[in-house]
Amino acid sequence: MTLSDAPAPGLREVTPFAATPAPAAAASIAIDDLRARLLRAGREAVDDRELLQLLLAGSHPAAEAERLARLLLDTFGSPARVLAARPGTLRAVAGLGEAGIAAIKTAEALGIAMARAALPESFHPQLDTYEKVVEYCRSLAAHRDVEEFRALYLDTKNRLIRDELLQTGTINHTPVYPRQVCVRALEVGAAALVVLHPHPSGDPTPSRADVEMTTRLRDALKTIDVDLHDHIVATPGDAFSFKQKGLL
Question: What is the largest CA-CA distance in the chain?
Fold first, then answer.
């Protein structure tokens, strides 16, 4: 070491070191790693929280996306219930912006579209493929936090014309108006229907009111020559088919 290279008296040489990434930069790196892992190894390589984090990373800063993913799971309990949550309910989640809510509802719509693509050509309960119809009904309604009433309108060959949400109710009740269902069936030219509603309690067993309403609806539809093929009660883990249980 030459005299000019020597450290000043009382000072020691400092070895250079790499700078620690700032928190925001570290979060962005983590998102990049998650994306790479998902694309390389597929769904099984990431957990539910990481999937939500990736979903929100396009609308929120990376660190905020991670916080929101944890908060959403803590609030709703599962990714499916996050996707099924109503926009108004999602707006109550602190820090979740409109772009994030739109991303969540887009993901739900794409999942329903995938379930619809798997539907059989015919919706009759006596066919082996009817289980796909039940699964589609669960994708539409099973994870809702309140009861809803939906109708799937079918043509003369039992093919789906359209599915519609007719009523939204409370955690354990939704009003059903047979006249409304009949009028809409005539408007869309339906020859048959499958109706469904969720039970947020998780128990798909129909109540006495469910059974009585189904009977009234069946009888009302008969007056306009429209068949009620089935009434399906959906929950996240199960489904109850009135037709398969001999109640229709």
Answer: 108
The DSSP call for residue 125 is T
User: What letter represents residue 211's amino acid?
Assistant: V
| pTM, two decimal places | 0.72
Residue pair 152/117 in contact (Cβ under 8 Å)? The answer is no
Residues in the chain, total: 248
d(CA 236, CA 144): 9
pLDDT for res 54: 93
Q: Which residues contact 213 (CB under 8 A, 6 or more apart)?
A: 176
- Edge-to-edge strand order for the sheet containing 227-234? 160-168, 148-154, 192-198, 227-234, 239-241
Q: Are residues 101 and 126 in the same domain?
A: no
Alpha-carbon Rg for the chain, nearest whole angstrom, is 27
Can you give the pLDDT at residue 1? 44
Domain that holds residue 63: 24-114
Phi and psi dihedrals of 118, rounded to 5? -90, 0
In one-letter notation, the amino acid at residue 159 is: R
Q: How many helices (H) and strands (E) does the chain have?
A: 9, 5
Final residue before a domain boundary, out of 62, 86, 114: 114
